[in-house]
Specification:
With 157 residues, this protein is of the alpha+beta class. The protein has six helices and five strands, in the order E-E-H-E-E-E-H-H-H-H-H. Strand 1 and strand 2 form a beta hairpin. The N and C termini lie far apart (43 Å).
């Protein structure tokens, strides 16, 4: 048994320690907000936070998460996290989502990035692009994503 701390709640999981976190979240625990995209950590759809750091859950084994705090999209966007709330509001304001499939991963990457910035700092477009690199949007809403991240940052000052 492996104990996972997901969104502040303890979950006992009986799974192989090498099982990717994504499959435990989705298949074992029924937490389906984190999406499967490519299975090779290339698209970013499966992004979650481990102790605040954005990681790809499709390639991160359970063993790497034991004892760490796992945050998934449901918690990041429930309004209880200041940065997550700012990102969520900016996503709506800038009408970022098209098909929406990549959005949980995009939001998780943006939230981790903004949370890592010194208080009051405003990222440049280049810094935002670098932070969001590896999150693929099939619909091509990158301009809106950049605008939403910049807007969220300005609202966190």
């Amino acid at each position: 048994m492996i104990t996972l701390n997901i969104n502040g709640n303890q979950h006992e999981v009986d799974a192989d320690p090498e099982t990717p976190i994504l499959w435990v979240l989705r298949d074992t625990l029924g937490m389906t907000g984190t999406k499967f995209g490519c299975g090779a950590a290339l698209c970013g759809a499966c992004t979650i936070h481990l102790d605040g750091e954005a990681v790809r859950s499709c390639s991160t084994p359970l063993s790497a998460a034991e004892g760490l705090n796992i945050t998934i999209i449901e918690k990041a966007t429930d309004g209880s996290d200041r940065v997550g709330a700012a990102v969520s509001a900016a996503w709506v304001k800038h009408d970022v989502a098209q098909c929406g499939y990549c959005q949980s991963g995009q939001i998780m990457s943006a939230t981790a990035f903004l949370a890592s910035l010194p208080s009051g700092s405003q990222p440049t477009a280049s810094e935002i692009d670098t932070a969001m690199e590896g999150n693929i949007c099939r619909c091509g809403t990158y301009v809106r994503i950049r605008a939403a991240v910049a807007d969220a940052a300005s609202n966190l000052v």
